[in-house]
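The data are passed on as follows:
___
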Amino acid sequence: MTNKLSSPLFSSRVKHDDVKSKEKWLGYLLGPAGALLLNAVLATYLNVYYTDVLKLTSVWGGVFLAVFPVISKAIDAITNIVMGYIIDHTKTAQGKARPWLLLSAPLLTITGILLFVVPESNQTVQVIWVMLSYNLFYSFAYTIFNMSHNLMVPLSTRNTEQRGSLSVFNQIATIMMSGILVALIFPMVIMPMLGVDKSKWIVTMSILSIIALPLTLLEYYFTKERVTLEDIDKEVEKVPYQKLLKAIFTDKFMVLILLYFLIYTVGSQFKNLGLVYYCNYVLGTYNDGTTQTLISVIGGIPLGIGIFAVWPLAKKFGKRNLTMGGFVLYAIGSAICWIAPSNMVIVLIGQFIKNIGGLPCCYVFMALFADILDHIEWKHKFRVDGIAMSIYNIIAVSSVGIVTGIFNMLLAKSGYIAPSLIDGVTVAAQQSESVKNVITFSFVGLETFTAVALVVILAFIGVEKGIEKKQAEIKARKEDTAEI
C-alpha cells in the first residue's frame, strides 16, 4: 500500500524534518481556512436558513427541526467510527490522514452547494432534500475533511514546541479568519443584504463552498505526517479494534479530555446557535448590522492578542494550568452577561472578560490532546490516532445534533415566530419573553456552569508531567526496533 500516492504529483511540498514557516502559514493557517470558514458559517447561519428562509420551524408541529438533527448526527457518528477505522488502516507514501484531505476538497464544494439549492416544491420534497444534503455534507464530506484535518497537528511532529506552534496556527484559521467573516462581515454587511431572500443565500453560500476547494488542496500539499512516516518502511502490527478502544477508555487522561471536550462543545454549540437570535431579539434589533458586530469585535480583540500571548504563557505555566485559569475568567464573564442580558455595556464587558478566558482553550487544546496520544503510545506501544479522533468527532457531531434539536424544540415550544418577506423587505416579528429567555440562557447562561465544570475536570489532567521523557523513550524504542 505504500506505493499509493507515491507519484511526485501527490507529494507533500514540505521537505524539512523540522517545521518551517511555510508549513505553518500555508498548511496550518491558510489551507484549512476555506473548509473551516464554510463550516463556521454553517454552524451559525444554516439553522437560520432553515427557520427563517425555508420556514421549517412548524413542520410536523416543530418536531422535524428537533428530531432531524439528532438522527443526522447519529448517522454522522457512525461515519466517524468508520472513518477512524479507515484512517488507522491507511498506509501510503503521504501518510494515513493526509490523503483523505485530497478527497475531501471537491466533496466539500459539491455538498456545500447542495445544502442551499433546496427546490421550490412541496414540503415533503423540501424535507427530503434537507435531510439528504445535510447528511451528504456533514456525515460524508466534512467527516472526511475534519477527521484528517484534526490529525495533522498530532501527526506533524513529536517536538512539543513545534507542535504547540502548529496548534496555534491551526486555531488562527478557525478563530481569526473565520471569525472576521462570520462574526464581523456577515452580521454587518452580508446578513442585512441577504435577509430571507433565498436566491441571495444560494449565491453567497455557493461562493464560500467553491473557495474551500483550492484552499483544502493547499493544506494537503503543505502538511507532512512526520510521526506516521517513522514507520512507513516497517511492518506495523495491526492492533485489533477492541484493543484500541480498551487503551483509550482505560486511560484516565484520555477519558477526562474527552469528557472535557463534550461539556465544552455542548456549551459552545448552544452559544453559537443562540448568537444570531440573541443579537436580533434580546440585545438589538433584527439584522441591525451593529449589535452582532460589536459582540464579535469584543470577542475578536482578545483572540487577536492571544496569537502572540498564549503559547509563551503555556510554555511558562503549562497548557493545562493556563486553560484552567482561563475558564475561571470564562465563568465570570458569562455570569456578568447573564445578570443584565439586554444592557449593551454590561454585556460587552462580560464578553471581553469571557473571551480573554477562552484564549488558552482555543489555541492549545489540540497540543494537549496530542500529548495524550503520545502518552498512550508510550504506555501501550501502539498509536490510537484514528480511533481517538473518531471518538473526538463523534462527541462533536452528536452533541451538535442533540443541542440543535433541543434548541429548535425550545424555540418552537416557546412560540418563536419567523420573519416574513413582504414586498421584498424582511419584516421581523416581536418575540415573547419566553422565547427571549430561551435565547438568553443559550447564549450567555449555560456557559457559566460549563466553565466551572471544565476547571474541575482539567485539575485531573496532568499529562504534561514527564511527557518529554516518554517521547524520548518512544524514540529510543523505535531506534532499537530499526536496528534489529
Remarks:
- DSSP finds 17 helices and two strands in the chain.
